[in-house]
Fold this sequence. Notes:
Blueprint: H1 25-37, H2 42-58, H3 64-79, E1 93-98, H4 105-118, E2 123-126, H5 135-146, E3 149-151, H6 159-173, E4 177-180, H7 189-206, E5 212-219, H8 224-237, E6 241-245, H9 255-263, E7 267-271, E8 279-281, H10 284-291
Parallel strand pairs: 1-4, 1-5, 2-3, 2-4, 5-6, 6-7
Antiparallel strand pairs: 7-8
Helix pairs in contact: 1-2, 2-3, 3-10, 4-5, 6-7, 7-8, 8-9
Amino acid sequence: MGLWQKLKKLSITNLFGGSISEADEAFFEDLEEMLILADVGVDTATEAVERLRKKMVKEKISGQEPVKEALREILAELLTVEDSELHLTTRPSVILVIGVNGVGKTTSIGKLAARLKGEGKRVLLCAGDTFRAAAADQLEIWAGRAGCEIVRQHEGADPGAVLFDALQAAKARGVDVVICDTAGRLHNKSNLMAELSKLRKIIDRETPDADLEVLLVLDATTGQNGLVQAKQFQETAGCTGIVLTKLDGTAKGGIVIAIARELGVPVKFVGLGEGIGDLQPFDAREYVNAII
């Protein structure tokens, strides 16, 4: 499992102490409560437990390991909402990275750039967060670590102008992927929508045939607050995937399941550490194996 071993086990493991049968109501009640405490979400926890109950009766499953395996299968199914692969077939392709401040957007961009560079792609970073002090400086440091190019302007510059320059540079230089940082502001939906809509229009105008991924970065340690953020961004920006950071630092990793189930947006990458190689493509089966 490698890096996945960094994930903390859900406390549901404690429920599997003795023999379990399909008639053990206390087990099902405790399991549902544990899933909710792990931030799986009430509706998803109820659905998972009900599926497990029916599966145990239908397939006559009992005993600690068989029940655990049945639960893993159910949770993996709940997590699989869409293809979790990045679709970057055009040159250039564009990745727009969104999310509030402090969730690890810039760090995730650097790690993703390094991963794509390692796959043989030529990557250009766009310092589209011109509002946060030193945001472009931080991104430039990551560009250096990842061995990628960067397009930036002065603090307070128009993000649309920076993106325009980056797309022109990408076309001129034969860049494979442009990764654009954005300001992490969520003051209100109208401001957010206006800014992101402007960036989308520039991408559509300058690279009309480009593959576009809109990745929302969330901090796993924020739990249900992360889900609230995700809903707001999904409504205003439309996301193609989630990058979940700091997953190794929380015992409430069930938020992954809640996001997939309630938003219908696939988790595409997870952050499992501080290193440049610690951003991993999400694998539903490996994830549930790690937490149960």
